[in-house]
Amino acid sequence: MINMTTTEIMDRKMLLNGEWVSRNEYMEIRDPQDGKLVGTVPLANLDDVEIALEAAVHGSERARSMPIHQRISILRKAAEELENRVEAFARVIALEGIKTIREARKEVVRCVETLRISSEEARRIKGETIPFDQFPGSENKVGYYLREPVGIILAITPFNDPLNLVAHKIGPAIAGGNAIILKPHEETPLCALMLAEVLMNAGLPEGVLQVITGIGSEIGEKLVTDPRVRMVSFTGGRLTGERIIKMAGLKKVSMELGSNAPTIIMNDADLDLAVPSCVSGAFWAAGQNCLHVQRLLVHSDIYDLFKERFITLSSSYQVGDKLDENTDMGPLINEEAAKRVEKSVDEALTNGANLLMGGIRNGNFYAPTLLENGHNTRLSYEEIYGPVTIIESFTNFEDAINRANSVDYGLQAAIFTRNLETAFKGMADLNVGAVMINESTDYRIDAMPFGGTKGSGLGREGVSFTLMEMTEPKVACFNI
Q: What residues does the Aldehyde dehydrogenase domain cover (predicted)?
């Protein structure tokens, strides 16, 4: 266990035009666990936004002219430095956010991988020749297309993965030769600033990356609407994403907006695999996760057994101090979030759901919670973003598929079964961006395409797929 009393207050500066700058006004970053002051960061204003935008214009020119080998070298060096500082970064993730120290270490390791993949994908930005003579009259024409940077990218990141989701935007942007303005979540900006420092140490030219800290409602609109920004990459809530799309104007947008993830447990499922996988998927990061196992659809033949084993394992979860190695689950990001989860559960119980376990709020902590018969509640079709899962039974696989598809989200779904025919049918019929077979919805590697259908967003993340979003084809045609 790491002693909380030894924590030093981190006074971080933001990165504008290659300089680390402070401001007279600042934001306090507090540990959601107990409200202790963790650090301070500058409170940016609209003048700072203009500085960032002007710097990004010049940074875009530098980024575009960076040879591929330089981009590769910068990203590799950054990955190496981060790998040597796993514990320091993990501690900051745990202190400023909602993850336990064990969860935080895994995020840092994933971030190392994200940067490494970005360095590898930089060399794969390729074009193709175009057979112009396929059209009559074009017999004397030859040519090709290549891919060029989009230009200036605005990245807006959430609190739940405050390091790796930052890398998922910065890494491909650098690999593609873009400039990027990062607006990290106001409650978890510290590790993002630390990552920016790592990248600058690795040789990133000044102006290629800006990190501006401030309140989204105060500086976000100017960043999103400015025509110099050619792409907005946003990960966060659906309502905010929809507002950004309406404001953005004529530019590229990439949106990852959450989900209401269903997991189907068939009667032939391996429960020794399914139960711990679903418990982990339900309560990782206190359920503040777009891949959170929110809906369990369990075949009636095994419903009681699965439910009993799920409750038994979940009841052993240790909730408390994030820096304690034995803690399984930490707090929600703030009291407002905890009260929102509490209200949603209370509303579900009023509307006929049964409380099987949990349902207790203690400050910013909310106990791992399982509800039954919640199909007529908002929890069955909205994203809870907390440690709450609803469970219900089914007898017909088609009915389970229909229930899984009934919401206006479609990020990931899961099926536990030993039957290949069932697995392939579920893969075909579930209207989501990814189907996990014998793995919970809360599974992702950083190289896979990641994104969803319907209200879950637009476009795909995953380094190589993000890189395609952050570059554009340009055609060269020669009349010979």
A: 20-475
What 3-state class would DSSP assign to 294? strand
Residues of the chain whose pLDDT is less than 50? Answer: 1-6
Examine the domain organization and report whether 407 and 461 are in the same domain: no
Asked if 77 and 157 sit in the same domain, the reply is yes
Give me the catalytic one of 96, 113, 121, 256.
256
Tokens 């960032």 map to which residue? 52
Domain at 399, CATH number: 3.40.309.10
Query: What's the CA gap between 344 and 330, in Å, rounded?
Result: 19
Query: Please, where are the H alpha helices in 256-409?
Result: 271-283, 303-315, 335-350, 397-404
Q: How far apart are CA 115 and CA 124, in angstroms?
A: 15
How far the first Cα of the chain sits from its last, in Å, is 72
278 in catalytic set: no
Tell which residue, 127, 118, 134, has the closest CA to residue 178: 118
Query: Catalytic: 148?
Result: no
Does 17 fall in a domain?
A: yes
In a domain, 307, yes or no: yes
Catalytically annotated residue among 111, 191, 278, 290: 290
Q: What is the model's pLDDT at position 7?
A: 57
pTM score:
0.95
C-alpha dihedral over 238, 357, 432, 378, to 10 degrees? -50
Pair 252, 290 in one domain = no
Whole-angstrom distance, CA of residue 387 vs CA of residue 389: 7
Q: Which structural domain, as residue segments, surrounds residue 349?
A: 261-445
Residues 304, 305, 307, 310, Cα dihedral to 10°: 170
The residue count for the chain = 480
> What pLDDT score does 244 carry?
97
